[in-house]
Every structure is written in structure tokens, then in C-alpha cells.
Amino acid sequence: MQLTAADDGEALGVSSRRARERLVERLRQMGVTHPDVLEAIGRLPRHFFVDEALASRAYDDSALPIGWGQTISQPYMVARMTEILLAGVRRERVLEIGTGSGFHTAVLASLVRRVYSIERIADLKERAERRLRALKLRNVRLRHADGAEGWPEYAPFDAILVTAAPPRVPRVLANQLACGGCMVTPIGTAPDQSLLRLVRTRTGWRHEALEPVSFVPFLEGTC
Ligand code: SAH
Question: What averages of pLDDT result for each successive group of 10 residues across the chain (223 residues)?
């Protein structure tokens, strides 16, 4: 893979900078307001995170296939989840379950001090690692494992982002949240999935169901 942070996508036959600006404008119109989130999405080369054949669609607001039956999340969903996740939490230590392409990981790495991200498919984890390294995002640690176990060595986390839908909140993950920390996860089986925001309080957890969503399932084990 030949990636450089300086690649501005001209080779794609599109001006990726202008395409990014248009995407950010669209996200704004859809209600995303967090300036740091918009700035990060406007700066990151999403075309690095998809196969070359799909690069011309990288700045559309849509999910795209990344192999192994998985998808890179829709930019609106990346922006919306990040905005919800970071509202009111310390931006120190964030755990992501479902690295996938690594794009959401890169957005988080632009906004917080340290990102820990777990992916169950070895090939996706390795490709994401190469992309993040090429972009010189060094505050990220990736792990090939089943995310249901979380990452106890680095817990507690200020925020936990889950990008595949489990049937219910994984208790182990909820327990790895710091007090005041926030988890954002899709919950349920398609077509009945919704986004859930869970906040750890001094006495337990408070949760709130947000909008309906459509994510790939949270699966057990590794491959
Ligand atoms: N944020 C990613 C989303 C990828 S799709 C992106 O935008 O590219 C969700 C990812 O979660 C897939 O790569 C899938 O393999 C992974 N996943 C599903 N269940 C998992 C589990 N139990 N542990 C770790 N990763 C998991």
C-alpha cells in the first residue's frame, strides 16, 4: 500500500479537498455541530481507508464495503457518534470496539489523547494499522481480539465507542467505563437497532436510547 499524508487525492480525478469540504457542509446541514469533529472529518483522507476502486465514492455520505462482509461507517454516523461520545467527558482515554477500516479510529485519535481499538478480523486490523501509521497517528494502540472482553489493562476508559451492534450492552465493557464516562453503541438486531448512550454514574449506569441505526452485528471470537 502506498499512502502518504500529503496525498490530496488528485490522482483520483477528483479534488478530494473540495469533496471533503462538501461532505463537511452536508454533515453541518444534517445537524452535526461539534467544530472539532467537523474539522477532523474535513481534514482526514477517507479515500485512504477504502479500496482504490471505491475511492471516488469515499466522500459520499455512505457506508462502503471494506471486505469480510464489513463496512466503513457512514460519515454522518461517525460524526454523530463522536459528537455524542465526547460531550462532557475527559478526552484522555478512549476504547473503540470494531476498528474496521480505521477511519473512525483516526477521527478519535485526532480528538483525544489516547485511543485503544480492538478488531476481531486480523486482516482488517493489520490494514488499519498500516493506514494509521502512514498518517502518523501515533496515539493509537490496536489489538486483534474479541472486543467483548474490553481491554482491562488500560481500563477505566473515559469513553467507549462500539461500531458493531451487540444484542444487549456487554456488561464487561460497561464495567470498564470510568465514573462519568460515556459509552455509545448500537444495540439490537437489524432491522430493530437503535443507538444507545450509556453514562456511568457513582451508583450505576444511566442510559438513553437515541435514533434508529443500521450496523453490522457484534460477533464472538476472532478470525
Ligand atoms: N468504525 C469502523 C466500522 C467497521 S464495521 C469503520 O468505520 O471502518 C464494524 C467492525 O466491528 C467490523 O470490522 C467487525 O469485524 C468488528 N467487530 C464485530 N464484532 C466485534 C468484536 N466482538 N470485537 C471486535 N471487533 C468486532
Answer: 46 72 97 98 96 94 96 98 96 98 98 98 98 98 98 98 97 98 96 96 97 96 97
Q: Whole-angstrom Cα distance, residue 219 to residue 164? A: 8
Q: Which of 48, 216, 220 to mutate to test the pocket of ligand 1 (most atoms within 8 A of CB)?
A: 216
Whether residue 120 lies inside any domain: the answer is: yes
Say how many domains are in the chain.
1
> Residue 183 sits in which domain range?
66-212
Q: What's the CA-to-centroid distance between 94 and ligand 1, angstroms?
A: 16
- The dihedral sign for the CA sequence 117, 184, 112, 40: positive
183 within a domain of the structure (yes/no): yes
Q: Give the separation between CA 82 and CA 39, rounded to whole angstroms.
A: 12
Q: For position 173, which CATH number holds?
A: 3.40.50.150
